[in-house]
Automatic annotation (TrEMBL):
Keywords: Carbohydrate metabolism, Cell membrane, Cell wall biogenesis/degradation, Glycoprotein, Hydrolase, Membrane, Polysaccharide degradation. One of its GO terms (biological process) is polysaccharide catabolic process. GO terms for molecular function: glucan endo-1,3-beta-D-glucosidase activity. This is glucan endo-1,3-beta-D-glucosidase. It is found in: Cell membrane. It catalyses: Hydrolysis of (1->3)-beta-D-glucosidic linkages in (1->3)-beta-D-glucans. Belongs to the glycosyl hydrolase 17 family. It comes from the Eukaryota. InterPro entries: Beta-glucan_modifiers (IPR050732), GH (IPR017853). Its EC number is 3.2.1.39. It is a single-pass type II membrane protein. SUPFAM superfamilies: (Trans)glycosidases. It comes from Sugiyamaella lignohabitans. GO terms for cellular component: cell surface; extracellular region; fungal-type cell wall; plasma membrane.
Length: 302
């Protein structure tokens, strides 16, 4: 650890270990530990989407083996149309909570874009969320916030009443906007589509996915490319944020390219496999990780 080209300027990072697709499950502790050692130089928070293939345990093992006492996990519970699959995820969640220190868990997000995919109704998703909250209270872990991650337009007051965290996936690339205005567009979308639904007694909002692909095509004014990725990185991390924005948590999408997502590429859109800061071999792409946040923190201390 300690690469000079990596800087801890990310609030959090979305991460899926290689070969963690059920039921194949070829993920190894060595690969996950190498990934976590890399990501710990960028952030203190890692978010995963599900518990299949032992990935949660492998990440938490890596925290312990590497002595990363400040690292924490946003544990994802993958929820879809299959009740059997969802129960398998919840069972593994219960195992992780019983085996590892609770301070490693910064949040639990029950489902990712479940409503957007049309897998469940709002009421069905709420029942899963309520179950997780009840279970946490049962094991005296009710301090761990619970939410779900959706695209902004799927958030409603009814769903917001049942969560501690309103997590929104917001991608300016899919909004078709030019990269030069993408950072402002993202925050405006959050404030207009998500924040109005916050239940003032208990919920906070975070951006659970935000990023830019390094190649693969374009959508209207949004162009996937390395220079555009660099531009978005610089504006997202470095542009001063006013008091409305500065305390909003966000998870970068994503850490490492995912070759298995090639199945969703089309002749005109090849970006599904190109959202990582690193390629699949853990090589940093031809970009520069900004240092402006570190410089700003140093000035604030002086």
């Amino acid at each position: 650890m300690g690469r000079p080209d990596l800087h801890k300027v990310f609030y959090g990072m979305n991460y899926t270990p290689r070969n963690a697709q059920y039921p194949e499950c070829g993920v190894t502790q060595k690969d996950v530990t190498l990934d976590v050692a890399l990501l710990s130089q960028l952030t203190d928070r890692i978010r995963i989407y599900g518990t299949d293939c032992n990935q949660g345990a492998l990440i938490l093992n890596a925290f312990q083996d590497l002595g990363l006492t400040n690292m924490s996990l946003s544990l994802g519970i993958w929820i879809d149309k299959s009740h059997e699959s969802s129960i398998r995820q919840l069972t593994e969640m219960e195992h992780l909570l019983s085996k590892y220190p609770l301070h490693y868990f910064n949040s639990i997000l029950v489902g990712n874009e479940v409503l957007f995919r049309g897998d469940l109704s709002t009421g069905e998703l709420i029942r899963y969320i309520d179950y997780v909250q009840d279970y946490l209270r049962y094991i005296n872990a009710g301090h761990i916030p619970v939410g779900t991650s959706e695209i902004g337009s799927k958030w409603t007051p009814e769903l917001a009443k049942h969560v501690d965290i309103m997590a929104a996936n917001i991608h300016p690339f899919f909004g078709g906007v030019h990269v030069s205005i993408s950072a402002k567009w993202t925050y405006d979308f959050l404030l207009q589509q998500v924040v109005p639904h916050i239940h003032p007694e208990n919920a906070t909002s975070i951006i659970s996915e935000v990023g830019w692909p390094s190649g693969g095509g374009h959508i209207q004014g949004s162009v996937a490319g390395l220079s555009e990725l660099q531009s978005f990185l610089d504006s997202w991390i470095c542009d001063p944020l006013d008091s409305t924005h500065k305390d909003i948590g966000w998870y970068w999408f994503e850490a490492i390219d995912q070759p298995w997502k090639e199945r969703w590429n089309t002749p005109d859109s090849q970006w599904e496999t190109q959202w990582g800061l690193f390629n699949a071999d853990r090589e940093l792409k031809n970009i520069t990780i900004p240092t402006c946040t570190l410089q700003r923190r140093a000035k604030e201390k002086n």
